[in-house]
Design brief:
By secondary structure, this protein is an alpha/beta fold. The protein folds into two domains: about 210 residues, Ribonuclease Z/Hydroxyacylglutathione hydrolase-like (Metallo-beta-lactamase, Chain A), CATH 3.60.15.10; about 70 residues, Orthogonal Bundle (Arc Repressor Mutant, subunit A). The chain has seven helices and 14 strands. It has a seven-stranded mixed β-sheet with strand order 1-2-3-4-5-6-7, covered by helices on one side. The chain has a five-stranded mixed β-sheet with strand order 8-9-10-11-12, with no helix packed on it. Helix 4 packs antiparallel against helix 5 and helix 6 packs across helix 7.
């Protein structure tokens, strides 16, 4: 089952696109190997506007958000603590006075976080209100419900917009690529559980922070789960062949992937292997990412 990615869609940097009656999107000009076309910030509502994932610290993007919604911004929501999602929180809060809701502070300390990918982790992020699974914030125009979806990172939240059966998926589900699960902040066992959680829901559309909206949510998530299961099988087969180090596995399993993405691939392989360690199928010797050895039990 192939994942129905959408790799081309129309947008203009800094210009708000009306995606539904309640939802607009503004994309930041920060394209890259892990952000695709850039960070998409969502504006929910027209009278009392919620901003979901303000994106990185970027003056042009901040101005675009203020132009699109201005003083109507009353709340800021954050899916998780990577800078391409929340680096712009402080400036937006200062400009609008809007309180910050959502993900709790970054789960690891500086120097102990996952290897740097793109803009890295935001250790300065401090929400006004930490939301837990099932928490709901409402206005007369909209309600947003937090859905705990750890995996990509342990503090990851999605936000449901029940009025439109829409789900803002952050990096848990992206429209253009699979998600990196990087330890120690991320966990593959948690990621599988969070995929299953979404499969059981009846959302009609996903709005990821990177890439186009996902129009067939359950089909998409099932395909992502099958892909992860396929990677599990491929990685275990490499161990059966006698390979013990992560980069040796990457060189075969991800042979068709650009080498610039091999560190991200290595992090995913590590997360898959550590899941197998927790299941009792694999034994690890050593702790460093590229020096640890994994063997079948």
């Amino acid at each position: 089952m192939s994942i129905p990615f959408v790799n081309a869609f129309d947008f203009t940097y800094g210009a708000p696109d009306q995606l539904s009656a309640l939802v607009r999107r503004v994309i930041c000009d920060n394209p890259g190997p892990f952000t695709f076309t850039g960070s998409g910030t969502y504006l929910v509502g027209t009278k009392s506007v919620a901003v979901i994932d303000p994106g990185p610290a970027n003056d042009a993007h901040l101005e675009a958000l203020l132009d699109a919604a201005g003083a109507q911004i009353t709340r800021i929501f954050v899916t998780h603590t990577h800078k391409d999602h929340c680096g712009g929180v402080a400036a937006l809060k200062e400009a609008t006075g809007a309180p910050v809701y959502g993900a709790k502070a970054h789960p690891s300390k500086e120097g102990e976080a996952a290897p740097l990918l793109d803009e890295g982790s935001d250790f300065s992020y401090a929400p006004d209100v930490v939301m837990k699974d099932g928490d709901i914030i409402s206005t007369q125009e909209w309600s947003l419900e937090a859905l705990a979806t750890p995996g990509h990172i342990s503090n990851h939240l999605c936000f449901a917009l029940p009025l439109e059966k829409a789900l803002f998926t952050g990096d848990h589900i992206m429209g253009w690529a699979t998600t990196v699960v990087a330890m120690p902040d991320g966990n593959m066992t948690d990621y599988y559980a969070s995929l299953d959680l979404l499969i059981e829901r009846d959302d009609m559309i996903y709005y990821p922070t990177h890439g186009a909206p996902v129009m067939t949510p359950q089909k998409f998530v099932r395909a992502v789960k099958v892909h992860r299961q396929m990677r599990d099988g491929q990685i275990m087969n490499e161990l059966k062949k006698g390979k013990t180090r992560i980069m040796d596995v990457v060189s075969t399993v991800y042979a068709d992937v650009d080498e610039v993405l091999h560190l991200a691939a290595a992090l995913n392989v590590q997360a898959h292997l550590e899941r197998q360690v927790s299941l009792g199928a694999v034994r690890r010797t050593g702790n460093k990412l590229l020096e640890a050895e994994y063997r079948l039990i």
